[in-house]
């Protein structure tokens, strides 16, 4: 603790008035921190952490002089890996509430572990907390199986009762004068700076255990999570895997307590995994991503809480993780809100252009393709809109190379003509198909065709044509442009004339 | 029948003796005795709550049994799970789970691979063949969430095929699938049967049951009848199976009438 605070003070001198943690001033602060770093000091004790190449790399990267920060950072990263991995399984197994319950249920165990010999002995606290967590899980099961109450109620009950008991015990500890009570209250909201070398060793061991167990028995964890019945029928002990997962989960929660705090541990389990869930549809990638997000969140927490003395780490970690989640929610390539909005928007724009092209075609068709150009007035009249709107549409088409505009007269380019004919063909084919094959009345098919015309793919159109025996006319007696017509339009020179498209 | 399975020898693929299953002390299955011959396509038929699924689950060791035993190929079922393929009910899993079609079918290989070994190229090849058999190979890399009901069912079938078993348990493989898929599945089941496999299929549509299966197991908490379809599919036995359920009785009457 002491060492850590000295380090913090030096940071403050360097960082000056950097009290807004999210402001740009944190960047120079970060660089100044790097300047303070000397070579070799870090290697002395961090070298003992052999299990985590990730941890080592990050420590090398930041190379801080202050050992307490190194422990804080390494510890936060380790817990990020753990929480990401176990959280991934919680999310796909729909057990998010279990994580929440378990993390609250460990608090009395922490207090009792502390009371064991009135110091913050990591091993005693680890054992106490694990026992309390597992006891909580057993009580949940007991309530579920012996009463009619459902799991969520049982979880809520146990969460509250155990947490309350833990709070009472912690209050008692803080009133005791004999106790070396530094840090017990830190278990509520977390203080990465309180992580000692002993803690880091314990965290490394737990991380190594989780990573090894999940890597070696990945198949079992996967199949028991996806389809428990099938897993058992192929000889996988579903219960063993379930309890192994619960035990690893309890370990993860317990090693995370000091840095994240009881209140927010569950968020470190759920948030990185939930963000990963939005970005991938393969389980192993989900686990890797969740761990990476966990590392990022852990590092965020360690960094921001380091900036000023006595800042809780947990909230910053959870904010970091939540930022990742918001990013995934908005910008995820498949399910992201922004991406979907953008795709929807570009589809809407394309539909609008295609409708304009169709209108131009209709104008040309109405005068039997005499004359090439269509005036804005004609287009506006056809579309029942103002000249200004028609002009805007024309500009839009010109921007996409589908039409040219000379004075107030538009000429379709070969590309525009081809697209216009394709849309009209789609529309009329679909109308014909609905009236012929689906026996829908002629006056009912137009609305449907208005939507379908924009989404029919080339293959479907070929199939439709074949099924309709390459019909020439739609149900209203109008000509359906054929593929040959469209090809001719595409091959035609700029400023296509009337001949060739009609009849 | 031309394929000689060494492991089965002359023992029946499935033998159930005095099997009783109870949920919370309420009996679901009573003293089931069953000896299923090799190379048969057996339909398990009975009203809701007759214990059709439970029988399958008990045979696979998925639910605790109160008494009795199940032997598969002459060996206690638990020790011979590698010889058994299983198609659970489609609703039993979360179809939003982050796995691809291929991942699911590869799970069929897990029993052969044991706890630690990873699927090798050979397993992937088998999985691809099985997907091809159910015409789902083009979907191999899709996430399972994007499949229709019939496609989901075919993925489960492919997974069971990948188990390369001699005895298959299928829990309502025709539930919620379209007619084309149903026809494809039944063709596949017949092909498996012709290769000497034994199939136990839970089915709840009586009229088709008569055409689909070689043998029928009429179940209503106990075995009402078990035998070749033409001997078992009678008005009296079906009435005994379905009790006083009038709607089903009329369905049965219709089915029997069609047959006569």
Short summary of the structure?
The complex is a heterodimer of chains A (503) and B (260). Chain A is mainly alpha-helical and 503 residues long.
Question: What does the model show?
Answer:
The complex is a heterodimer of chains A (503) and B (260). In chain A, helix 5 packs antiparallel against helix 14, helix 14 packs across helix 15 and helix 21 crosses helix 23 (458-467). In chain A, strand 2 and strand 3 (409-412) form a beta hairpin. Chain A is 71% helix and 2% strand. Chain A is mainly α. Chain A has helices at residues 2-15, 26-36, 43-46, 53-62, 67-92, 96-105, 107-117, 122-146, 151-175, 186-189, 197-216, 218-226, 228-233, 238-260, 265-279, 283-306, 314-331, 337-366, 376-383, 387-399, 414-436, 445-452, 458-467, 483-491; strands at residues 374-375, 403-406, 409-412. Chain A has a 3-stranded antiparallel sheet. Chain A has 24 helices and 3 strands. Chain A starts with a helix and ends in a 12-residue tail after the last helix. In chain B, a hairpin with a 2-residue loop joins strand 1 and strand 2 (26-36). In chain B, the strands form 2 sheets. In chain B, strands 6-7-8-3-9-10 form a 6-stranded mixed sheet, with helices on both faces. Chain B has a 4-stranded antiparallel sheet with strand order 2-1-4-5, covered by helices on one side. The longest helix of chain B has 16 residues, at 179-194. Mean pLDDT of chain B is 87; it is low at 1-8. Chain B has 260 residues and is an alpha/beta fold. Chain B is 37% helix and 23% strand. Chain B has 10 helices and 10 strands.
Question: Which features does this protein show?
Answer:
A: 503 residues; mainly alpha; three-stranded antiparallel beta sheet; 24 helices; 3 strands; 71% helix; disordered N terminus; B: 260 residues; alpha/beta; six-stranded mixed beta sheet; globular
């Amino acid at each position: 603790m002491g060492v850590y605070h000295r380090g913090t003070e030096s940071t403050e001198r360097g960082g000056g008035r950097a009290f807004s943690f999210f402001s740009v001033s944190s960047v120079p602060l970060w660089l100044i921190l790097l300047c303070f770093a000397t070579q070799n000091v870090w290697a002395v004790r961090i070298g003992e952490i052999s299990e985590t190449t990730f941890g080592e790399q990050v420590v090398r990267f930041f190379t801080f002089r202050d050992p307490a920060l190194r422990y804080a950072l390494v510890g936060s990263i380790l817990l990020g890996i753990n929480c990401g991995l176990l959280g991934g399984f919680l999310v796909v197994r729909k057990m998010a509430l279990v994580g929440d319950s378990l993390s609250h249920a460990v608090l009395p165990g922490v207090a009792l572990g502390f009371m064991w010999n009135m110091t913050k002995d990591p091993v005693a606290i680890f054992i106490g907390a694990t026992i309390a967590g597992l006891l909580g899980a057993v009580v949940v099961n007991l309530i579920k199986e012996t009463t009619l109450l459902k799991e969520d109620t049982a979880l809520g009950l146990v969460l509250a009762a155990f947490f309350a008991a833990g709070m009472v015990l912690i209050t008692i500890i803080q009133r005791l004068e004999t106790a070396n009570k530094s840090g017990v209250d830190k278990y509520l909201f977390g203080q990465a700076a309180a992580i000692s070398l002993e803690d880091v060793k314990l965290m490394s061991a737990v991380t190594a255990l989780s990573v090894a167990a999940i890597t070696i028995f990945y198949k079992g964890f996967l199949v028991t999570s996806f389809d428990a019945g099938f897993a058992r029928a192929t000889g996988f002990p579903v219960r063993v895997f379930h309890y192994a997962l619960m035990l690893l989960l309890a370990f993860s929660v317990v090693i995370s307590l000091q840095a994240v705090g009881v209140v927010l541990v569950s968020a470190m389990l759920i948030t990185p995994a939930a963000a990963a869930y939005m970005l991938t549809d393969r389980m192993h990638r989900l686990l890797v991503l969740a761990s990476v997000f966990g590392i990022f969140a852990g590092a965020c927490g360690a960094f921001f809480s380091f900036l000023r003395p006595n800042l809780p780490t947990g909230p910053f970690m959870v904010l970091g993780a939540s930022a990742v989640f918001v990013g995934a929610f908005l910008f995820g390539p498949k399910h992201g809100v922004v991406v979907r909005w953008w795709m929807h928007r570009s589809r809407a724009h394309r539909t609008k252009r295609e409708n304009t092209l169709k209108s131009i075609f209709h104008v040309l068709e109405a005068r039997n393709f005499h004359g090439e150009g269509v005036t804005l007035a004609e287009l506006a009249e056809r579309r029942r809109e103002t000249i200004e709107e028609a002009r805007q549409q024309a500009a839009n088409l010109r921007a996409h190379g589908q039409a040219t505009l000379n004075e107030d007269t538009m000429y379709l380019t070969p590309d525009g003509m081809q697209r216009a004919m394709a849309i009209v063909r789609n529309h009329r084919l679909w109308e014909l198909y609905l009236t012929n094959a689906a026996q829908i009345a002629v006056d009912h098919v137009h609305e449907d065709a208005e939507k379908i015309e924009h989404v029919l793919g080339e293959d479907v159109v070929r199939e439709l044509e074949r099924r309709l025996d390459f019909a020439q006319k739609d149900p209203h007696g109008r000509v359906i442009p054929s593929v040959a017509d469209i090809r001719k339009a595409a091959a035609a020179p700029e400023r296509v004339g009337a001949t060739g498209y009609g009849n | 029948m031309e394929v000689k399975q060494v492991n089965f020898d002359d023992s029946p693929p499935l033998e159930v003796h005095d099997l009783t299953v109870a949920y919370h002390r309420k009996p679901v299955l009573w003293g089931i005795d069953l000896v299923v011959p090799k190379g048969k396509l057996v339909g398990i038929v009975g009203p809701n709550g007759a214990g059709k699924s439970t029988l399958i689950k008990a045979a696979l060791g998925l639910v605790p049994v109160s008494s009795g035993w199940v032997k598969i190929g002459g060996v206690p079922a638990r020790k011979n799970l590698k010889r058994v393929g299983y198609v659970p009910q489609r609703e039993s899993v979360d179809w939003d789970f982050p796995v691809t079609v291929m991942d699911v079918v590869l799970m069929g290989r897990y029993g052969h691979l044991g706890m630690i070994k990873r699927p090798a190229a050979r397993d992937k090849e088998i999985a691809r063949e099985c997907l091809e058999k159910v015409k789902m190979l083009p979907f191999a890399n899709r996430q399972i969430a994007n499949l229709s009901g019939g496609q989901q069912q075919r993925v489960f079938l492919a997974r069971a095929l990948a188990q390369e078993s001699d005895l298959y348990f299928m829990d309502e493989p025709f539930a919620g699938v379209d007619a084309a898929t149903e026809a494809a599945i039944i063709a596949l089941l017949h092909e498996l049967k012709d290769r000497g496999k034994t199939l136990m299929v839970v089915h709840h549509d009586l009229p088709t049951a008569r055409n689909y299966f070689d043998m029928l197991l009429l179940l209503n908490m106990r075995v009402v009848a078990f035998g070749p379809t033409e001997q078992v599919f009678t008005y009296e036995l079906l009435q005994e199976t379905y009790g006083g359920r009038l709607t089903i009785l009329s369905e049965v009457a219709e089915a029997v009438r069609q047959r006569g």
